[in-house]
Amino acid sequence: MNIKRLMLFIIIITLSLGLIACSSVKSNLMKARESALNADISNDNKIGNARIKKIIECLESNDKKGLKKIFSPKALKEAKDIDGGIDYIMAFYKGKMKSRDEGTIPTKDLVEDGERKSELDCKYVVTTNKDRYIVFFIDQTVDTKNPDNVGIFMLQIIKESDRDKVKFDFGGKSKCAGIYRPATVKK
């Protein structure tokens, strides 16, 4: 009977140690995943912040060629009138940037058959010395299968005061290549 109790005690101790070890491994895996996620978010923020900075620099210096260069080859090919859109947005945006919020940058990542795609949907509120604007853009940051997709796909800018008046859905139903112009604007 003492041998049975001893065996039972050894089994309980062994199982307890196994559970503790599994819990420790799981905890370490969770910490590693969280650390990787935070690094990805930080990198996404850096990419988004660099893009908005470049967009605003181009608008403020009336650099049409520079603005056009940040669009992906696919967006330039699919856009209905990229040059007209750039002319529109250059005339629309007024002033010099005084501040901008940190923005929201949801990321869409997809890995399929060893091919990777990553897209940022970036929204900022930019305050100039003339007005406040909502700036939204879709930036394809990675596409290992089709590199022509890499770059800005869509850019939308409206005055913050027009938010309720203008159809502005952050690329939902109005997702289009190039520069978004409200239906009320002649093309």
Provide a descriptive summary of the structure in words.
- This protein is an alpha+beta fold.
- 44% of the residues lie in helices and 25% in strands.
- The chain has helices at 2-60, 64-69, 73-78, 82-92, and strands at residues 97-100, 107-112, 115-128, 132-143, 151-159, 178-179.
- Strands 1, 2, 3, 4, 5 and 6 form a six-stranded mixed sheet that branches.
Element layout with pairings:
Elements (H helix, E strand, L loop, with lengths): L1 H59 L3 H6 L3 H6 L3 H11 L4 E4 L6 E6 L2 E14 L3 E12 L7 E9 L18 E2 L8
Parallel strand pairs: 5-6
Antiparallel strand pairs: 1-3, 2-3, 3-4, 4-5
**Helical amount:** 40-55%
- What's the CATH topology name? Nuclear Transport Factor 2, Chain: A
Low-confidence stretches: 35-39
State which percent range the strand residues make up: 25-35%
Spell the H/E element sequence. Answer: HHHHEEEEEE
Number of domains: 1
Architecture per CATH nomenclature, i.e. the level-2 architecture:
Roll
Structural class: alpha+beta
Extended strand count: 6
Main sheet makeup: 6 strands, mixed
**CATH class identity:** Alpha Beta
Question: What is the residue-mean pLDDT, rounded to a whole number?
Answer: 80
